[in-house]
Every structure is written in structure tokens, then in C-alpha cells.
Amino acid sequence: MDVLKGILLKIASSIVFAVMSALVRWASESVPVGQVVFFRSAFALVPVLLIYAWRNQLPAAVRTARPFGHVTRGLIGVAGMFLSFAALARLPLAEVTAIGFAAPLMTVALAALILGERVRIYRWSAVAVGFLGVLVMLSPHLNVVAPGPAHGPEAVLGALFALLSAMAQAGAVIQTRRLTGSETNSAIVFYFSLVSAVGGLLTYPFGWVTPSWPLFAGLVAIGVLGGIGQILMTESFRHAPASVVAPFDYTTIIWAFLLGYVLFGEIPLPIVFVGAAIVIAAGLFVIWRERRLGLERARAPSAGPPGGP
């Protein structure tokens, strides 16, 4: 393993996804969300299929024993994509990114409720603290702690979409865990992109627009960057343990803030960063706890689940 390379690849994927989100934010001012979803999904297949062909993995990408499982995962994922893009059209880039950090915490809760995974008091406490951070970020839109004139009905709707998107992302992770027992990563990525592209295409009768050439190039770039980001993220896990590279997901908030400020003049309220810090701290604690439990299992493989909380 090359841990430094894995970390750099993870940071690179965070930058690519942040740039992609900025392009979504820009394109959503002129293009319906469904059209953006289609381009994001369809053109993401280009770099993904090219890398699979180069590695002779195309047969593994299309071979599946659980087509309906992929459809379920795709429907959950495309719902999350619609919600995320709708949020980006209504809220600052950094704010949508920060609310999205709640997804890993929601995954912990869903893993316990749906998969029956054993989650003890430490991780439940982290989930509770993380949700407190989400409430802090949402408070301006709830008119509780820091109301502001810029937070009207559209922003409230955007905050709701961002939160529901995080829930959908968590659900997609749970369904992915169900698939990994029999399906390859390449198949999961391929069928997710395929289902998402079809989902976006189904919105065509509801009013797609004919984009200008610069806008068309931006839409294509959204898809290509999405595919490249996926490849970089997958590669990062090939070079370093997930518990090492996962914390660098949170660098996305840096790039999102910089891009939002430079491109759109967006400056989120300070309370948003306070809430984001709480959520990030809770997420990092969950990652640390998962790593510690993994080490305990490795040391005592026959002892069953760790006895600590």
C-alpha cells in the first residue's frame, strides 16, 4: 500500500466533486434538474467505461446476478441526486456540502435498523451529536437561532432537499453493502450510472431546454468530472485503508467554500460553519471508532464482537 498516494487521490476526488457541484450550481440556473441529472449520469459512463476497458473489466461491469438489487440502488441514488441538485439550485455551495456530511452518520443509524449491525453507545452518541450539528446548520432556515433576510421559502426548500439527499445517500450506501456480497464494484458503478441516466431522461417530456454551446460543454463536464471523481475515489481505497482516507472527504467543504465565494460570491452564515464543525467532529469520531473496532477484531478473530461499547 501507498498511504500518501491514497490520501492524495482522495483529496483529488474531493476537489473534482466540488468543481462538479459548482458546475451543477451554475447550470441549474438555466437547465431543469432532470436534464442535469441525465448529463451527470450519462457522461460519467465515458471515463468509467474507458478505465474498465483498459483494465479488461468490462465483462465484470455488465455481469450481474442481482439486476433488481441494482435497480433499487439506482433509484435510491438517483433520488438523492435529484434532491442534491435541487438543493444546489437554492442554497450556497458550501451549505449544501456541509449538510451532506450528515450522510455517514445516517448510514450508521440505518445499518443498525436495516442491516441489524451492532451499534453501541459510542457511535449512537456520535450520531446524536452529528444530528445536533445538522439542526444548528438548519436553524437559520427554521428561524430559530440566527434568522436572516436572505433565508426565504426557496432557501428553506433547499435545506429540506439537502437533508433528504443526505438520507438518500445513506440509503444508497446500505443497498450497496447488500450488493457487495455478490456484485463487483464495477457492476455497482455501471448500473448506478445507467439507472440514473434513464431516470434523468424520463424527465425529458417535462421541459428540457436547448443549451447554448458553453452550457452544453458545462453539462458534459459535469458528467465527465463525476466519472473521474468516482475513479479517483475508488483508486484511493486501493492504496490506503478506508479509515485512513475517509476523513479527507471533509476537505470538500474547503473547496466548496472557495468555489462558492469566487464564482458566486456566496458567504454562508457563521452558524453554518459551526454546525459543519460539529457534524465533521462526529463523523471523524465514527471513523476512528470503526478503525478501533476493526483492529480489535483483527487481534481476536475468534472472540466474536468486541465487548466494549
Characterise the protein shown here.
- With 309 residues, the chain is an all-alpha fold.
- It has one domain (3-299).
- The chain has helices at 3-27, 33-42, 45-54, 58-62, 67-88, 93-100, 103-113, 121-142, 153-179, 185-201, 213-239, 242-245, 252-264, 270-299.
- Helix 3 (45-54) packs antiparallel against helix 10, helix 3 packs across helix 11 (213-239) and helix 6 (93-100) runs antiparallel to helix 13 (252-264).
- The chain starts with a helix and ends in a 10-residue tail after the last helix.
Offer a few descriptive terms.
14 helices; mainly alpha; globular; disordered C terminus; 309 residues
How many DSSP helices? 14
Strand content: under 5%
Sequence of secondary-structure elements: HHHHHHHHHHHHHH
Tally of discrete structural domains = 1
Helix content: over 70%
End-to-end Cα distance:
31 Å
**How many E strands?**
0
Uncertain spans: 302-309
Biggest beta sheet attributes:
none
Q: Report the radius of gyration as a whole number of Å.
A: 19 Å
The general outline is globular
Overall mean pLDDT stands at 90
Structural class: mainly alpha
Brief summary of the model shown:
With 309 residues, the protein is mostly helical. The protein has helices at residues 3-27, 33-42, 45-54, 58-62, 67-88, 93-100, 103-113, 121-142, 153-179, 185-201, 213-239, 242-245, 252-264, 270-299.
